């Protein structure tokens, strides 16, 4: 009976098993994509959230608008107002900062 089912529906069984396997892998990959990593930076004179979004554009995969909105929400900043000496978290990973910038000095969190 099982051999007869396999002979009749082997392609469908393989397709369904493959689909479930791919769905599982996609689920595992999507879970990691939603995790945001960040670094803490100290604001210097002349900094703005928009400048930081542009400066670190290669270290995040957000639009500048989404980057600024994330930073404002995560750091409880209203109307984008930051001041020299403030420390803010940015949604970028430590390893993605390629060079030191004039905008902010990076303070890596342990």
Which properties best describe this structure?
alpha+beta; three-stranded antiparallel sheet
Question: Short description, anyone?
Answer:
By secondary structure, the chain is an alpha+beta fold.
Characterization of the model:
This protein has helices at residues 2-33, 49-55, 64-75; strands at residues 39-43, 87-90, 104-107. The protein is an alpha+beta fold and 110 residues long. The protein has a three-stranded antiparallel sheet. Helix 2 packs across helix 3 (64-75). The chain is rod-shaped and about 75 Å long.
Map the helices and strands:
Blueprint (H helix, E strand, L loop, with lengths): L1 H32 L5 E5 L5 H7 L8 H12 L11 E4 L13 E4 L3
Antiparallel strand pairs: 1-2, 1-3
Helix pairs in contact: 2-3
Q: Give the strand line-up of the largest sheet.
A: 2-1-3
How widely separated are the two ends? 61 Å
Task: Find the structural class using helix and strand composition.
Answer: alpha+beta
Q: Strand fraction band?
A: 5-15%
Shape: rod-shaped
Radius of gyration over alpha carbons? 23 Å
Helicity level, as a percent range?
40-55%
Helix-strand topology string: HEHHEE
List how many beta strands DSSP finds: 3
Low-confidence stretches: 96-103
